[in-house]
Specification:
Layout (H helix, E strand, L loop, with lengths): L6 E6 L4 H5 L3 H9 L2 E6 L2 H8 L9 H18 L15 H13 L4 H13 L8 H10 L6 H4 L1 H18 L6 E4 L4 E3 L4 H8 L9
Parallel strand pairs: 1-2
Antiparallel strand pairs: 1-3, 3-4
Helix pairs in contact: 5-6, 5-7, 5-9
C-alpha cells in the first residue's frame, strides 16, 4: 500500500487544441480511480525550443496541413465543436494560466471546468483569453472569485515559469501531457485510455 495517495501532474497549455479535445475525460478517470490532479499550465512555445519541437507556424507545410486534418477528425469523432483557425490564436497564454494557478491555490470552485472552459473559449467560442474581462468571466463561471485574476499575478508568474522547468525535467515535450506519481508518462488526449488502463493497475510490472 502506498503511503501517499496517487496523483497526476497534468501539463498543458491554454492554447493547445489537443488539451481542449481532452474535454473532461481526465477529471472523470481521476475521480473513478481516486486520483488527485495537479494542474500545471506552462509556456508551450518556450517548451518547443527547449525540447527540440517546432511551433506550428514554423513546421513544414505538410505537417501544418496534417495537423488541421487531425484536429478536425478528432473533433468530429469526439463530437466537440472546434474552429480550425481561431480568431485569437495564438494569443498571450499567461493571464489565463496565472488565473488557473491562482484558482488551484485558492480552491472553492471547479478547476477542471475552469481549464476546459478556458480552452473552449479559444477553440470553440472565438474569445480572447488574454483579455482581463474574459479571464474574470471564466473564473466566475467555474465558481471562483474573479478577483483572482488580479491578486494571483505575482504567484502565478512564478509558478508558470516553474511549471516550464518542471516540465522539461519530467520529460514533457508537448501538450496535453500526463505524468503519474509512479513516473508513468502519457502524451496526448488520445492516450487517456492508456492512462486509465495504467491507473487501473493493468500495466503493473511492465518495464519502462
Amino acid at each position: 500500500m502506498s503511503a501517499s495517495a496517487p496523483t497526476i501532474d497534468y501539463y498543458f497549455s491554454t492554447l493547445s487544441p489537443y488539451s481542449y479535445l481532452a474535454g473532461l475525460r481526465l477529471e472523470e478517470l481521476a475521480a473513478r480511480h481516486g486520483v488527485a490532479i495537479t494542474y500545471k499550465p506552462f509556456d508551450i512555445m518556450a517548451l518547443f525550443g527547449r525540447t527540440g519541437g517546432t511551433p506550428p507556424k514554423d513546421r513544414h507545410p505538410s505537417r501544418q496541413e496534417y495537423r488541421l486534418i487531425e484536429m478536425e477528425r478528432q473533433s468530429k469523432r469526439l463530437g466537440m465543436p472546434l474552429t480550425l483557425k481561431p480568431a485569437f490564436w495564438p494569443t498571450n497564454a499567461a493571464p489565463s494560466s496565472y488565473a488557473i494557478i491562482a484558482a488551484q491555490k485558492a480552491g472553492g470552485g471547479d478547476l477542471g471546468a475552469l481549464v476546459h472552459n478556458t480552452l473552449r473559449a479559444v477553440w470553440a467560442e472565438e474569445r480572447n483569453i488574454a483579455e482581463d474581462s474574459v479571464v474574470k468571466e471564466l473564473l466566475s463561471g467555474a465558481g471562483f472569485n474573479p478577483a483572482l485574476a488580479d491578486s494571483g499575478l505575482l504567484t502565478g508568474a512564478e509558478i508558470y515559469a516553474q511549471n516550464l522547468e518542471e516540465a522539461v525535467s519530467a520529460g514533457v515535450f508537448g501538450a496535453p501531457f500526463y505524468v503519474t506519481s509512479d513516473g508513468a508518462k502519457f502524451w496526448g488526449q488520445d492516450r487517456l485510455a492508456d492512462l486509465d488502463w495504467h491507473l487501473g493497475g493493468q500495466v503493473e510490472g511492465q518495464g519502462a
